[in-house]
Amino acid sequence: MKEVIKAIGNVFISMPKGLFVTFKHLFIKPVTLDYPKQKNPMSPRYRGKHYLERYDDGTERCVCCGLCAAACPADAIYMEPDETEKGERCAKVYEINLLRCIFCGFCEEACPEEAIFLGQEYEFSAGDRDSFIWTKEEMLVQHPRKDNPLKRVIRRVRKVYGVTDKVK
Amino acid sequence: MSIQKTMTINMGPQHPSTHGVLRVVVELDGETVVKARPVVGYLHTGIEKTMESKLYYKALPCTDRMDYLAPMSNNLGFCLAVEKLMDIEVPEKVKWARVCLAELTRVNSHLVWLGTHALDLGAMSMLLYAFRERELIIDIYEACGGQRMMTSYIRVGGLAHELPKDFEKKVRKMIKVIRERLNDYETLLTNNEIFIQRTRGVALLSAEDAINLSLSGPLLRGSGVARDLRKDNPYSGYENFDFDVAVSNSCDAYGRYLLRIEEIRQSLRICEQAIDGMPEGPYRAHVPGVVLPPKEDIMYKMESMIFHFKIITEGFKAPTGSVYQAIESPKGELGFFITGDGTTQPRRVRVRPPSFINLAALPKMCEGGLFSDVVCAIGSIDIVWEKLTDDVV
Amino acid sequence: MQGKVGVFVSIGIVMAEQVKKEQAVSGVPMVTATIDGREVTVPKGTTVLEAAREMGIHIPTFCWHPKLKSVGACRMCYVEIERMPKLQVSCATEVMEGMVIQTASEQVLQGRKAVIEFILLNHPLDCPTCDKGGECDLQNHTFAHAVDDSRYSFKKARYTDGTDGTTFDDKRLGPEIVLNRNRCILCYKCVRANKEAFGEYDLGVYERGNIAEINSAPGHEVDNPFSGNLVEICPVGALTNSDWRYKIRVWLTQTTSSICNMTSSGSNILFYKEKNHNKIYRVTSRMNDSIDDGWLPDVSRYGYQIATTEERLKTPLIKKDGKQVEATWDEAMTVIHNRFTEIAEKKGKVCLGGLASPYLDNDSLHSFNKLFRTVFKSNNIDFRSDYRMLPEGADSPYEMLVDQPFTIADIDDSDLIISFGSDLIREHPNEYLRMRKAYNFKRAKVVSINPYAVKSADIAELEVIHSIGRAETVLNGICLAAMEMGLVNNQDLTGKIAPATTAEAASDAGVTEDDLKEVARAISSAKKISFICGEMVSRSIARDTIASALWNLYLLFGFKDKGQMAILPRYANSRGAGSLGLLPSPSDGLRNTLSGLWGCFPESDPNNTDAMLALMRKEEISGFFIIGANPLMLYPDRQFVTDGLERLDFLVACDLFETDTTELADVVLPLSSWAEYDGDYVNLEGKVQHARQAIKPLYQSKPAYEIITMVAEKFGAPLFESIEACRKEVDELLSMTHSTKFPSQFLEVKPCYEDAEEEYPTPLLICDDPHHCGHRTEKSQSLSNFVSEAYIEMSPEKAEKLAVKDGESVRVESPVGKIVVPVRISDCIDNNVVLIPRNFASTQVTSLLMRKRRLDRVKITKVDE
User: Fold this and answer.
1) pLDDT at A77 over 70
2) Pairing between strand C809-813 and C856-862?
3) 3-state secondary structure C320-339
4) Domain residue limits at C842
5) What is the mean pLDDT of chain B?
6) Which of B144, B164, C34, C817 is deepest in the core (most CB within 10 A)?
7) Residues of chain B positioned with their CB less than 8 A from the CB of A112
8) Residue B42 and residue B23 in contact, taking contact as beta carbons nearer than 8 Å
9) Which of B299, B344, B345 best tests the A interface by mutation, with the highest count of A CBs <10 A?
């Protein structure tokens, strides 16, 4: 008998209370956004589409050392080194297979030249598999990104062989 | 010709309530379940073997993918196991941060459970509310590790990066919001007669059965056994925190619901304590040859450059020996058994998957009940398929 | 398993005791010391480092190399020795009786840590760009010993060339070698190896103290024929080579152990390949003390590039209307079958002939032999394409001398090493290094008897330079001198040789009497002799005369008991080809075994390369099968070969790339290089070595064995059931007890001089460039970086007489041809002789030669611009 009374109580008192909670949400500002017109900003550490950074003078930072490929748990990175006219090491081929990539960010952590970064971009669907293989040309940003919060302001440390003030 | 009394019905593997690819072969006598047999193996990821073929540090992203609702817990379990194998002591701050993150993960996992379980039982708005609140936690993940689900934030020897600057602010906000919203959830569900009718006295499981089936986590505590590794076998500094182990004696799905709500409250309590008492210090241990040197150093210190290069290309060597490290993940006891052989790759990695072992309770919970309650039983186990099946074979 | 280990251990103990006994007998006292708590007994003079390594204790080093003398430059090998106040460098400390040594104590580790910190102070942060990264000793030792933090925060010292053009201060030292002085840790290993092991002085240490640096000698390039080793032994990335520079990371490669295909000693090499690209990236040595001592000549190191070059033949080619067009293997095989059958039906099977390359492996050579002898029933088969007028039969003095046993490692212990008629550095670089080692470490006496001053004579105690074409007279003179001085008792030789006195012989040969006496004295007093004869004997048409003179020397001085004398085979598997009976008329024993194996042996006339070419001119051989060889480029009479090959009805040629010979062929088949299949090779000692397959056959090429079996199958006569059956036959042939033949008595030697002609005054020698071997290596990019075109090498005096400078072109004329080549002036040649390498297809040097001449003489005139 007690159970029944309680059940009736639940139906007539508690459930309207619950309905009131739902009703209340009619007047609360919705948390959803009108995507794709509106977008949520990603956190600075967000690991999106990769890009290759340049030095301030426009030269590529990547020297094709292979550490990113070595660190990649998914073996998504393929690279072939080459020599520039000046005799410096550079990347001839640098490809990331996005279908293999797991966006763990290990390449970014491994890079000793601060060349590869995982950017903020997350919209990169495509219709065919080939377009998921990103080449160096596609990833190389046209200008050094001044706004990149992760890019430390380092000079070509390897060139001056010492500690620059800006590093410290 | 004998008349067949029972009817066999196949449920899944693509049934919406099975949360993935669980297949249950149910034998019915009218509406009553005579026999329920979960069929596993529809999703095999081979994560253990994958981890064995990778360097220790490269095996870490695999753990994220074992339970996508609790990435930090899995990271933590693996890292603790490797640290135990290699005898690494992490700084105090790392321990506190890890506890905080693990508890965030518990809240995250339970919220998703709550939303989907309620949805299975017919409560639509719960799902939306739970996911709305989960977003706060996911944002914290993103700020920490840079990814919303596969964080890979906890690393052997510490954390991947320093905690973000607004970490404390975000966590405090999250605690405040979720505490409030928990009351709403309870208003919606706890005294909702429909919900009660669907869950109370359903999916019954005695303490004896639970122990015999070696269940763990909320499923075990829901049957009145107060076992929680955080209390019984503290790791990562859980002994410093003040919290209660939620236990329910009702042995049914309703009891488990109440228990998980209580666990969320306790987790928030722990998070608050961790934020309040977070000590200052480095975010990773200084263990040359195992933990990467700071990125700034490799720009001008030759030693750091060499260590960075060697760790990345060759990995670190773990000594010969076997360790078992279990943590209390949101789903139950998550254990990592790692055998090292002196090389840079583990010889054997074995994961004790809580979801898979808990699934063994499904026949016990369903048999004798109604067919419609199978959904409730599956829901109250709280399974995550990725973790479950990779360990089947 | 346990039993086996036990046996090995006990064998080890027995051997160790034997060594001890031997050493005790040989008079070296033994000393006992304790290293890390374990006792060890070693001969006096052993260093602590060597003793520890013998016990399996690893002591890190930078500057130490097992084949070089210790200098103790890097201080990395610190050990703690009781009762010595400071840490000692183990590589330069000899073990003393009762020493107690700690190799890994706290103090030692601290010392090493300090050494590393010191080395790293000015080390540039080049790991990402440095090709050594991943296999760098400095990285490894730092990772093992130091901490990942530095106390040094000042600006690093840096060498620049002043231009500041690049981030990396690389300096090109030679065609292949690039130096980065900033990375150098000054272990001096390269300079020491260059000086001690190779006898080259083009690399040195300049300046001193803080600014000491390794650099090439002023005005010189590092281009010696062993320069690749400097890169390999560099413990850091200071020396790199273009071959490997910026190509691939070492951890992405896999290694395959193999054998060098360029030298006849079969240096042991390691291929670094990438299996997905199916490409070889470099070759390093695989130290084998009994063969190569861990040094590779450049031709072995960079020779692999012939396999990976773009110029490889990609498909079979068939000549249609005078043009070679691409075809499939099936088509090519059908054509071969039809045409050969046609010729055999029309003219008989004796009209077919075959020429194999001595670079091929045993299976290929044996199957080729079987194809000709059982399917074509012909004895027209040979593997020697670059010797004119070869003798018939296996019993000639020359063939007997070629068959003599020779052990490379025995050069080490010889106290007298004679190189006769051999420019060792060009022909047998490994044996050349052995000779230097014996000279450096054992103070062996080196004698060089040559018609000109060869490079290898710089360590010779006695250098006898005789008139060219008078080699047998020099040998006779030595015999006569010995008899006249009473050094030998045997006087049977008198009367069999001419001239009759030492004085006459000396004047005939253009040497002094004292020299001959000195050589005779040296030979008679030596305890162990290595007598190395080279190409100048085997290329000469008077080879039997010279060989007879050598045999007289052999018998007179009793070489049998005190040394080895042999004409060393020249190519990777020359010895194997001989042992497998790939000769027109193999020895009776071989013949019997072969006919036993096959059940038949053809009775037709045996014809060697010479005879076959002559028959071709008479159109008595109409079908010819060349596999791997290039007679047109190498046979010393180009006109003769061209005439012969052009008159053929049908020519099949297989090679790696298009050559002069394949241009004449009706069917060209692409051949795989030795890196593309498994094969066994017999080196000059008769040792069978296995070369593993590194990569899959490139393009459509096939290994020689497969091509030959395909041909046989097309003729409906499969040669073997499987390759195992072939190997079984090869094993049987090679395991035949090889009875070395000696002449029983002194041989008659009548010198056959060839008079100089007025018109063509200068003797010409054809040889290999030190960086090349045969006709294939010019396709190797790295080797052609060293030398890419032919030159005429002459002495400064000669050049002065001709009024030409280095690099200027001269016209070289002989009665049959003329070519224009640039001059290279060298100190390593004199005596009016000039030398032209034969490795370059663009310069048809063999067109100057005539097959019936003993000496090739030419007229050199300056080309007026």
Assistant:
1) yes
2) antiparallel
3) ECCEEEECCHHHHHHHHHHH
4) 762-862
5) 89
6) B144
7) 298-299, 305, 308-309
8) yes
9) B299
B389 confidence band (pLDDT: 50, 70, 90): low
Give mean pLDDT, residues B69-93. Answer: 93
The candidate with the shortest Cα–Cα distance to B201, out of C176, C498, C406, A3, is A3
A63 shares a domain with A7: no
* Distance (Å, whole) CA A158 – CA C124: 7
Assess if residue C142 is contained within a domain.
Answer: no
Model confidence at B329, pLDDT cuts 50, 70, 90, reads: very high
Confidence at residue C112, expressed as pLDDT on a 0 to 100 scale: 93
- For residue range A37-65, what is the model confidence (pLDDT) as tens digits? 998 888 888 888 898 988 877 788 888 99
CA distance B342 to chain C (A): 14
This prediction's pTM: 0.90
**pLDDT mean across residues, chain A:** 82
In a domain, B300, yes or no: yes
Ranges of chain C with pLDDT below 70: 1-26, 160-168, 393-394, 737-739, 865
Question: To which residue do tokens 């063999």 refer?
Answer: C846
Q: What is the CATH number of the domain that holds A117?
A: 3.30.70.3270
SS3 A82: strand
The answer to whether the Cβ–Cβ distance between C127 and A65 falls below 8 Å is yes
Domain that holds residue A118: 50-159
* Contact (CB<8Å) B313/C125: no
Q: What is the pLDDT of residue B2?
A: 64
Give chain A's domain count.
2
The size of the B-C interface in CB pairs under 8 A is 62
Residue B316 lies in a domain: yes
For chain C, what is the mean pLDDT? Answer: 88
| Contact flag B308-A112 (C-beta cutoff 8 Å) | yes
**What string of DSSP letters covers B46-68?**
-HHHHHHTS-HHHHHHHHHTT-T
Q: How far is CA C531 from the centre of its chain?
A: 17
What does the pLDDT read at residue B264? 94
A89 domain residue, yes or no: yes
Are B300 and A106 in contact (CB < 8 Å)? Answer: no
Would you tell me how many other CB atoms lie within 10 Å of the CB of residue C591? 16
Domain containing residue B295: 47-351
| A69 within some domain | yes
Strand C30-35 relative to strand C100-102, pairing: parallel
Residue C84 and residue C93: Cα distance in Å, rounded? Answer: 12
Residue with tokens 């394949």: C662
Give me the number of domains chain C comprises.
Answer: 5
Backbone angles phi, psi at B37, to 5 degrees: -130, 110
**How is residue B244 written in tokens?**
């209660």
CB contact under 8 A, C120 and B303: yes
> What is the token pair recorded at C824?
């290279």
Q: Which amino acid is at C808?
A: E
